[in-house]
């Protein structure tokens, strides 16, 4: 179980963590995985955005290119998921 002080660190993702925990306790492990994955992806995205502030302006171009590629891959993944749902 996660402590309240650590739960506060999740910010907006607390809801998804709680839903994942409810699924896990209820025996719906695959459902919990979906919620936990969303939490992890959101935390990583926030950390990457914060990392941008630590990179000197002169060295940001490779970082920005990697971020653009990450966003493009996520967009393609979202489109693929939607197409599978529609079919």
Spatial extent as radius of gyration: 17 Å
Number of extended strands:
0
- Main sheet characteristics: none
Please tally the helical runs, counting DSSP H or I stretches of 4 or more residues. 4
What is the CA-CA span between the terminal residues?
39 Å
What number of structural domains do the residues give? 2
Unreliable parts: none
Helical content stands at over 70%
Could you spell the SSE succession in H and E letters?
Answer: HHHH
Write structural notes for this entry:
Helix content is 79%, strand content 0%. It folds into 2 domains: 1-54, no CATH class; 58-87. The protein has 87 residues and is mostly helical. It has helices spanning 4-9, 14-25, 29-52, 60-86. The termini are far apart. The model has no long low-confidence stretch (mean pLDDT 81). It contains 4 helices and no strands.
Lay out the secondary structure.
Layout: H1 4-9, H2 14-25, H3 29-52, H4 60-86
Descriptive labels:
single chain; mainly alpha; 2 domains; 79% helix; flat
Summarize the structure.
With 87 residues, this protein is mostly helical. It is 79% helix and 0% strand.
């Amino acid at each position: 179980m996660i402590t309240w002080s650590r739960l506060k660190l999740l910010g907006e993702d607390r809801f998804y963590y709680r839903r994942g925990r409810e699924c896990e306790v209820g025996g719906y492990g695959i459902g919990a995985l979906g919620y936990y994955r969303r939490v992890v992806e959101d935390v990583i995205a926030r950390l990457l955005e914060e990392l941008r502030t630590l990179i000197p302006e002169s060295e940001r171009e490779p970082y920005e290119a990697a971020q653009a590629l990450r966003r493009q891959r996520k967009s393609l993944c979202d489109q693929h998921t939607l197409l599978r749902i529609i079919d």
